[in-house]
């Protein structure tokens, strides 16, 4: 196959984004839109895996990055790994949506179009090679998700969540943009490589002048904008509201894929582009990490809505991932990438169950999980695996990725940056703290008898997905974690150059 | 070329050829103002000969423990009574390995007539650990069989009978394997039956399995408790398949904790134990099970993540890119004292919660009282042993200085546990709660044994772990039988049972006697050795734990007297009380047999344990 | 040639005005407008330094940002419109069905 085929997944998505509205002219059958979206995402997912990880499909050296569009679009191990995650998550969301929305739900064509365009934005972000492409990718994805969150026009909560998401999102993206403009002002470049070499120049004395304040300020602005995407303290206020208000499949997309996209952007900007001026931002990121995990876990304890609880837990998880960024070593970054991936799966899995339980009419409160184990062993088990994985209890995948993360950071800490050790200890103690609220859900699922009607049938596709999640988190990752680590290491090498 | 060859030959042969002779002069100045060995510090190579030559005055040469000591070290070398003139050569085995020998002249030691011989590097080399790999994967079978059984029972989850039969079959099979493992290990020094499966070479993590005299009794204990639990829970009616599957998963995880020699895998198994236990308490527990299960989980998990940080600190400090306990323990000379103290503190918190030692014991009574009897049996019988096992296996050999620093803390915690546990037991009316607090007290005795840091004390502690591991399940069985056959565990409500169920009551009496430490039963042997060791190391402080034993005897006898004997109770339907059914009698009877067997012939267990404890202390440099 | 620091000062004043508007105002439409002012601030920087460096990239970015701003307003107004249909208000303080 030709190298240009690497751009095929995006082409597929763009084509489908145009096809679905066209289909809408001919047919009112809602099934056709979802089938189209499933096929597209499934095709993109398979193609990504085959083209990148199946040997000899493509005649390229995978260690070297491939560039498109005058070097604005970069394909490397890092971008492909995350594109696979995005495609898979979007596929799961698309599959779940068919059972979440009933036949009569209006505007389904728009829904699937927006879902695809959101995924497209994430993929562009993963491949971005300059600030403009990065920003465009983030905005494509963000605009689609604003509309997705507010998708149920008649639903009060959904609209309110959409408005909040939009206003805070617009504000923070304006801040990011201003930060980028400041970087452009001092360097004169917008490409990552250009800015990176300028920063290296400052360090090695090639470039004259003292830019440290300007760099610090622009870092602050960029952190503010990207911190909104990954929902870290103090830019987290939207997350609980939006996670609670949005339709649950959309929440799944936000929690799993959109967050991963935010981390992709953070990695590209801080770990690659601005790595040589790390003195300017490491302390800020460290404080944000510590604050996020503590605030997230403490706030999650008192939540009664499962969406809000998981939102706070994902704020805490973002905090864990952030501790690896100031470490800036290969191992810590591999850990951060691994935990971002695994977090997408465990959070996504948990929200799939939440959406299913909500869709069959049990509600979104913690109490609605009473006796779930009696109603469906499989769903309860999937939820348990996801939650225990989020705590980081062996042998589940979350433990392994968290171990990578803390391992890498602790190693960097022992090697000199001793304040990182404090971050790791904070993370470990927070993991123990977080156990409490996850156990609350498990307690409701297993220890109480179901209330209300007994004859609830859970849709089949959700059951298959939960089985897949269990297999992935409890069997596949723990057994083959060396391979997971290899993947992440390869991505790290591609990222850090 | 020939010259070069000759040079090489000379270098190679030099060590062989140079068994040098050294002479130390034993003398005093003629006016008696100074007494000396000449040279005072003698450097020799391994294999050299040393001869002492008397010049002036009446002296002898006797080994002392260190440079400050003025007395003869019992068992060391000595030239005998003071002599005038003549010579005496040092037996050659004293210079056969690296180390420093201190010696004195006994009559003139206070006049600083001392000397020392530095052999080789002067440091005693760490003892070699015998590692014997097995050509048959006995230990993997221990891990795999219960797991297969768990999946198997789940295949028959709709049948009322199949799960328990499968579970019984599986546990009997693992019991046979654990007997084989126990006997194959024997009382050899070092690890036997080792296996290694690489899991994550990038981090130096592998599934490194092996047993020594410390773990083989624990493996045997886990093997024995398995079928007893299954038989005792024979008539479990609520979700039997899940129940037995969890028991079997739990057994796998417990075996894993006891046979792995890799810190990381140890931690993984350590945490896996929590999950089935949580569900056992949470689903089949008593009224307050929700609170108890969550408290149990959070308490132990919090402690063990702190332990994980300790493990990782060890890993990084070693710098050898391996989590193997053996490899890390070999480096224990390189760890600074400060580091050892901190890491030992982290590990000790993790282990002390599991032991459980006061003040971290509060989860135990809740968990015990709420757990189903089978859960309590596993909890008290095997799970509580993980803490002390971990302390002896994972902390002591690696952090000798840290352990030494914490000896006073451990002694205080142990004595407080003994007294506090016993005192609380006296006040309990619920028999199960009484047994739970008595576990705190008994494990306090074991912790006291560890804190003595002597061979006898450690061995007594491990023996106590085994003895308590079989007798406390029996006590919980008594409580379970009372609940099933009489309907209550409240001691004040009971009375006069002996008339109505004489055989069962007889067994109860024997179990209670065993648990309070009657000579001839296993607990007595353990207590005796711990107390002797404690007396040797701490003297008359022994009065405190002895007082604890008086309390122990008190609450056992008191509970027995009020529940089994005495007047017929008005508060229970006394005429409806029958003998316990076979599936409750046989396990108790089997336990009594074991307790008597190991009480009368303790050496079956004591031999391997003593060898292992000697190895560990040897490794710590404490022998 | 004007010293580029003046542009930065000008743009940061614009940014502060915009941020003040976002934080202080209760009307969603005004908040959206304030966000537009903030985007303009970034635009000023891009265009000024584009001519300073003699590099067209900055101006291209400015064009893109204008487009993005238009799209943002379109989506924003649509969402606020459906909010208004349900609640007859777009006051931010009244968005309290979900805990803020």
Task: Explain what you see.
- The complex is a heterotrimer of chains A (497), B (623) and C (100).
- Chain A is mostly helical.
- Chain A has a domain at 301-497.
- Chain A has helices at 8-26, 30-53, 77-100, 108-127, 131-149, 156-187, 192-204, 212-230, 238-245, 248-273, 278-301, 306-322, 324-327, 330-359, 372-375, 377-391, 397-414, 419-447, 460-479, 481-496, and strands spanning 66-68, 73-75.
- In chain A, strands 1-2 form a two-stranded antiparallel sheet.
- By secondary structure, chain B is α/β, with parallel strands linked by helices.
- Among the domains of chain B are: 18-119, Cupredoxins -  blue copper proteins (Immunoglobulin-like, Sandwich); 420-623, no CATH class.
- In chain B, 60% of the residues lie in helices and 10% in strands.
- Chain B has helices at residues 2-17, 138-155, 162-185, 215-232, 240-259, 263-272, 274-284, 289-318, 325-330, 337-354, 363-370, 373-395, 400-405, 407-426, 431-452, 455-486, 497-500, 502-516, 522-538, 543-563, 582-600, 603-620; strands at 21-28, 35-38, 41-44, 49-54, 58-59, 62-64, 83-84, 87-89, 99-104, 114-119, 131-133, 191-200, 205-211.
- In chain B, α2 (138-155) packs antiparallel against α3 and α16 packs antiparallel against α21 (582-600).
- The longest helix of chain B has 32 residues, at 455-486.
- Chain B is elongated and about 95 Å long.
- In chain C, α1 (4-24) packs antiparallel against α2 and α2 runs antiparallel to α3 (57-87).
- The model of chain C has no long low-confidence stretch (mean pLDDT 88).
- At the A-C interface, α5, α6 and α9 of A face α1, α2 and α3 of C.
């Amino acid at each position: 196959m030709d190298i240009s085929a690497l751009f095929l997944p995006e082409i597929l998505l763009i084509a489908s984004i145009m096809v679905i509205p066209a289909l809408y002219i001919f047919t009112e059958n809602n099934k056709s839109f979802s089938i189209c979206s499933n096929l597209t995402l499934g095709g993109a997912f398979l193609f990504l895996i085959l083209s990148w990880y199946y040997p000899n499909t493509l005649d390229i050296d995978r260690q070297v990055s491939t560039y498109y569009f005058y070097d604005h679009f970069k394909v490397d191990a890092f971008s492909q790994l995350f594109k696979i995650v995005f495609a898979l998550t979007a596929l799961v969301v698309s599959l779940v949506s068919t059972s979440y929305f009933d036949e009569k739900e209006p505007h389904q064509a728009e829904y699937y179009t927006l879902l695809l365009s959101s995924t497209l934005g994430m993929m562009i972000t993963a491949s971005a090679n300059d600030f403009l492409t990065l920003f465009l990718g983030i905005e494509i994805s963000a605009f689609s998700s604003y509309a997705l969150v507010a998708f149920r026009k008649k639903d009060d909560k959904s609209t309110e969540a959409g408005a909040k998401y939009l206003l805070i999102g617009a504000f923070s993206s304006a801040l990011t943009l201003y930060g980028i403009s400041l970087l452009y002002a001092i360097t004169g470049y917008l490409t990552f490589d250009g800015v990176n070499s300028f920063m290296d120049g400052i360090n090695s004395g090639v470039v004259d002048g003292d830019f440290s304040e300007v760099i610090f300020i622009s870092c602050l602005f960029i952190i503010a904008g990207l911190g909104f995407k990954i929902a870290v303290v103090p830019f987290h206020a939207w997350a609980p509201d939006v996670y609670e208000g949005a339709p649950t499949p959309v929440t799944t997309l936000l929690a799993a894929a959109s967050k991963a996209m935010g981390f992709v952007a953070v990695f590209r900007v801080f770990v690659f582009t601005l790595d040589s001026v790390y003195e300017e931002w490491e302390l800020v990121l460290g404080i944000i990490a510590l604050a996020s995990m503590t605030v997230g876990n403490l706030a999650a304890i008192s939540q009664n809505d499962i969406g809000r609880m998981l939102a706070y837990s994902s704020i805490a998880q973002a905090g864990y991932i952030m501790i690896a960024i100031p470490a800036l070593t290969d191992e810590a970054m591999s850990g951060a990438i691994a935990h971002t991936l695994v977090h997408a799966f465990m959070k996504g899995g948990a929200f799939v169950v939440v959406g299913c339980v909500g869709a069959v009419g049990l509600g979104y409160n913690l109490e609605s999980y009473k006796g779930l184990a009696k109603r469906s062993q499989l769903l309860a088990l999937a939820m348990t695996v996801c939650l225990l994985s989020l705590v980081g209890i062996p042998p589940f995948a979350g433990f392994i990725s968290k171990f990578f993360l803390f391992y890498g950071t602790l190693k960097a800490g022992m090697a000199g940056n001793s304040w990182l050790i404090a971050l790791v200890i904070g993370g470990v103690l927070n993991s123990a703290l977080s156990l409490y609220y996850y156990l609350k859900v498990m307690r409701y699922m297993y220890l109480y008898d179901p209330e209300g009607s007994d004859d609830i049938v859970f849709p089949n596709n959700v059951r298959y997905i939960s089985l897949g999640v269990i297999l992935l988190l409890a069997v596949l990752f723990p057994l083959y974690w060396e391979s997971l680590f290899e993947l992440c290491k390869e991505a790290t090498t591609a990222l850090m150059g | 070329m020939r010259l070069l060859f000759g040079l090489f030959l000379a270098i190679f042969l030099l060590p062989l050829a140079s068994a040098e002779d050294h002479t130390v002069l034993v003398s005093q100045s003629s006016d008696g103002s100074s007494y000396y060995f000449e040279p005072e510090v003698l450097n020799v190579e391994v294999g050299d000969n040393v001869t002492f030559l008397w010049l002036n005055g009446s002296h002898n040469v006797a080994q002392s423990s260190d440079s400050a000591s003025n007395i003869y070290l019992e068992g060391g070398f000595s030239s005998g009574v003071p002599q005038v003139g003549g010579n005496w050569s040092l037996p050659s085995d004293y210079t056969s390995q690296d180390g420093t020998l201190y010696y004195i002249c006994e009559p003139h030691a206070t006049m600083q007539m001392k000397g020392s011989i530095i052999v080789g590097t002067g440091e005693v080399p760490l003892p070699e650990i015998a590692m014997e790999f097995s050509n048959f994967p006995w230990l993997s079978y221990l891990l795999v069989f219960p797991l297969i059984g768990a999946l198997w029972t789940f295949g028959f989850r709709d049948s009322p009978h199949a799960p328990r039969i499968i579970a019984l079959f599986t546990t009997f099979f693992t019991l046979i394997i654990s007997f084989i493992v126990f006997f194959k290990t024997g009382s050899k020094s070092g690890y036997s039956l080792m296996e290694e499966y690489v899991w994550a070479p990038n981090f130096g993590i592998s599934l490194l399995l092996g047993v020594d005299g410390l773990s083989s009794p624990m493996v045997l204990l886990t093997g024995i408790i398995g079928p007893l639990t299954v038989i005792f829970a024979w008539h479990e009616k609520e979700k039997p398949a899940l129940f037995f599957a969890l028991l079997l998963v739990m057994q796998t995880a417990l075996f894993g904790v006891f046979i792995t020699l890799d810190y990381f895998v140890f931690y993984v198994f350590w945490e896996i134990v929590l999950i089935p236990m949580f569900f056992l308490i949470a689903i089949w527990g008593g009224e307050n099970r929700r609170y108890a299960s969550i408290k149990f989980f959070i308490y132990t998990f919090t402690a063990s993540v702190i332990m994980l940080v300790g493990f990782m600190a060890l890993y990084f400090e070693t710098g050898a890119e391996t989590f193997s306990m053996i490899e890390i323990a070999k480096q224990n000379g390189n760890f600074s004292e400060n580091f050892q103290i901190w890491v030992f503190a982290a590990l000790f918190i993790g282990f002390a919660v599991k032991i459980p030692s006061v003040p971290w014991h509060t989860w135990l009574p809740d968990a015990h009282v709420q757990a189903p009897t089978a859960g309590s049996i596993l909890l008290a019988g095997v799970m509580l042993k993980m803490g002390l096992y971990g302390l002896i296996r994972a902390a002591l050999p690696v952090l000798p200085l840290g352990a030494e620093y914490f000896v006073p803390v451990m002694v205080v915690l142990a004595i407080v546990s003994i007294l506090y546990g016993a005192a609380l037991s006296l006040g309990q009316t619920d028999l199960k709660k009484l047994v739970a607090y008595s576990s705190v007290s008994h494990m306090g005795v074991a912790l006291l044994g560890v804190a003595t840091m002597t061979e006898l004390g450690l061995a007594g502690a491990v023996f106590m772990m085994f003895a308590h591991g079989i007798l406390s399940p029996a006590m919980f069985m008594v409580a379970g039988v009372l609940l099933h056959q009489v309907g209550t565990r409240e001691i004040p409500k009971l009375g006069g049972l002996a008339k109505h169920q004489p055989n069962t009551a007889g067994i109860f009496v024997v179990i209670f006697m065993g648990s309070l430490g009657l000579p001839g039963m296993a607990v007595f042997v353990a207590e005796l050795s711990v107390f002797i060791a404690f007396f040797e190391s701490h003297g008359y402080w022994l009065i405190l734990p002895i007082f604890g034993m008086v309390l122990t005897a008190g609450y056992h006898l008191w509970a027995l007297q009020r529940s089994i004997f005495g007047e017929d109770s008005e508060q229970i339907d006394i005429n409806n009380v029958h003998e316990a059914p076979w599936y409750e009698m046989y396990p108790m009877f089997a336990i009594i047999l074991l307790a008597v067997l190991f009480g009368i012939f303790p050496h079956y267990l004591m031999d391997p344990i003593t060898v292992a404890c000697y190895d560990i202390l040897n490794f710590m440099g404490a022998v | 040639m004007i010293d580029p620091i003046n542009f930065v000062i000008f743009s940061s004043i614009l940014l502060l005005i915009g941020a003040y508007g976002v934080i202080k105002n209760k009307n969603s439409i005004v908040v959206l407008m304030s966000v537009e002012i903030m985007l303009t601030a970034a635009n000023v920087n891009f265009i000024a330094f584009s001519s300073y460096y003699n590099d067209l990239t900055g101006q291209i970015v400015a064009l893109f940002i204008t487009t993005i701003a238009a799209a943002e307003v379109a989506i924003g107004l649509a969402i606020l419109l459906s909010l208004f249909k349900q609640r007859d208000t777009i006051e931010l303080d009244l968005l309290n069905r979900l805990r803020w």
